[in-house]
Amino acid sequence: MDCARLWLGLLLPVVAALDFIYHHQGQMEAFLKDVAQNYSSVTHLHSIGKSVKGRNLWVLVVGRSPKEHRIGIPEFKYVANMHGDESVGRELLLHLIEYLVTSDGKDPEITNLINSTRIHIMPSMNPDGFEAVQKPDCFYNKGRHNSNYYDLNRNFPDAFEFNDVSRQPETVAVMKWLNTETFVLSANLHGGALVASYPFDNGVPATGTLYSRSLTPDDDVFQYLAHTYASRNPTMKERNPCKAKLESQSGIINGYFWYPLRGGMQDYNYIWAQCFEITLELSCCKYPRKEMLPSFWNNNKDSLIEYIKQVHIGVKGQVFDQNGTPLPNVIVEVQDRKHICPYRTNKFGEYYLLLLPGSYVVEVIVPGHDPHLTKVTIPSKSQNFSALKKDILLPFREQLDHIPESHLSCPMIPLYKDLQGHSAATKPSLFLFLVTLFHMLFK
Question: Cis omega before residue 200 (within 30°)?
C-alpha cells in the first residue's frame, strides 16, 4: 500500500513551492512556465503583447478548457501591477495560481470552480515599472509609470471626457485582449489603501456627480461585488484601516466619491468590454517588506476565491432564431438598467448578465424587428457554480443572415458627454442593496 501511494505521488504534477518574496520578471516567467508545463491539462500560458521595453505581458489561463472558450463557461480575469510600484497584488496572483492548480482534484470547491470557469490571471500589466523600482517605498516609487512615463490607469478611452493621451503598448495590448474574450467579471489589484472601489471613476451630472458620486445602472450589483471581497478581508472591512482621511463603509467606496479619475481601466471594462470590474486596493503601503507577504496572502485568499465565484450570479444563455441558429451581435439588456453602450451577444450568440436575486425583464433587440421581452426570476440561492440558464428563441420566421456593421460597437468617445437628466443609477440604492444582501445570506 505504501509503495502504491508513493508511485501515485510521483505521477501527480509537482511545482516547487512558491516563496513569499518579490519575483522579478525572470523569476515570474520561470514560475509561470513551470506551472503551464506541469499542469498543462488545466492551464494555458500566453503573452497578450509586450511592454515598452519588450517584456512579455503574460496571462495564465486556468480552467478545464484553458485554450479556448466553451459555451456556457464564463470568462473571469484578475489584473495586477498596473502601477509597477504597487507590488502586493502581483505576488498574490502568483500565489493564487499556485493555490488553484495544486488544489484541483483535492478541494471540491476549487475543482468545481475550475470545471465551471475560465480564469485569466495577469500578474503584471506594467513589468517595466516593477523592474524600475530601485528602493521600495510605502508611498512613492519611480516605477509607478511605464517606461514612457505614462500612468496606465489614466491611459484608456474615457466615456465622460476626452482623454487625448498617447495610447501605450501595454494599454493597447489589454484593449485588444478584451476584444478577444467574453469577459464577464474582473478585478484589478492596486496598493496604497485598503478598500474595494467600484464604478464609475469618472462621471457627469446624469450619473450623480452633483451628489459627489457617479453610479452605474448596475450599482446594486457593484456594491454587492465590492462587499463580497471586502467582507472576507479582516483588515479591509475596518472603518479606517490605513489611519488616513479615507473612511469607507465596510471597506467599499464609489470610485468617483473617492476621487475622480479620467481614463481608468475599470470604467473602460464596464462600458466598452461588457465586463464588470472593480478596483482592489490591498495594502496601506504600496511596496511593503517581503516579510509581510504571508499575512497579505492569508487576509486575501478567501476573498480572491469568493470573488471569482460571483461570475456565476445572474442569468446566461444563447439567443437563437427559429431555425435554431445562434445570433451574434444582438442587443440583450435588462429593462430599467440599460447601458450607454448596449451589451450584445458574442459570436456564439451567448449573453451573460450579472444580476442579484429578483425578477427582471430581459429585452432582446434586433434591427428591423420589435423588441422581444423575456421575464426571468433569479433565485435567492444561486445554483452550484452556474448562473440561471435561459436560452431565448426569437419568433422570427426568416433567418437573420447578419447584423449591419454599424450596429456592432460603440465609438470610443465620451458617450455620456451630452446625456441629459438623471438616470435611475443616481437614486439611493443602499437600502435595496442591504435588503438583497439579507435575502442572499439568510434565505
Answer: yes
Cell numbers for 372, please give them.
422581444
Number of Cβ atoms within 10 Å of the Cβ of 347: 10
DSSP 8-class letter at 381? S
pLDDT of residue 367: 86
- Number of Cβ within 10 Å of residue 166's Cβ equals 8
Residue 143 banded pLDDT, cuts 50, 70, 90: confident
Helix ranges (DSSP H) in 151-277? 169-180, 219-230, 255-258, 265-272
Q: How far apart are CA 242 and CA 304, in angstroms?
A: 21
Q: 144 to each of 96, 243, 335, how far by Cα in Å? A: 23, 23, 41
Q: Strand, coil or helix: what is 135?
A: coil
Band of residue 401 on the pLDDT scale cut at 50, 70, 90? low
**Portion of the chain with pLDDT greater than 90, in percent:** 76
Per-position b or e across 111-123, b if 16+ CB within 10 A of its CB:
bebbebbbbbbbb
Nearest alpha-carbon partner for 194 in 135, 253, 143, 263: 253
Q: Is 350 helix (H, G, I), strand (E, B) or coil?
A: strand
- pLDDT for residue 159 is more than 50: yes
Instruction: Give the integer Cα–Cα distance in Å for 166 and 168.
Output: 6
pLDDT of residue 12: 53
Beta strand extents in 12-116 (DSSP E only): 43-50, 56-62, 75-80
* Pair 328, 348: CB distance under 8 Å: yes
Which residues participate in catalysis according to the annotation? 281
**How far does the chain reach from its first CA to its final CA, in angstroms?**
46
Instruction: Taking residues 239-258, report their average pLDDT.
Output: 82
Give the pLDDT band of residue 104 (cuts 50, 70, 90). very high
How crowded is the C-beta side of 152, counted as CA atoms within 13 Å?
33
Separation CA 266–CA 190 (nearest Å) = 12
Q: Which amino acid is residue 155, in one-letter code? A: N
Q: Binning pLDDT at 50, 70 and 90, where does residue 124 land?
A: very high
Length of the chain: 443
pLDDT in tens, 276-331: 999 999 999 999 999 999 999 999 999 999 999 999 999 999 999 999 999 999 99
Cα Dmax for the chain: 74
- Choose among 151, 163, 211: nearest CA to 415: 163
CB distance 281 to 266 below 8 Å: no
Q: What three-state secondary structure class fits 83?
A: coil
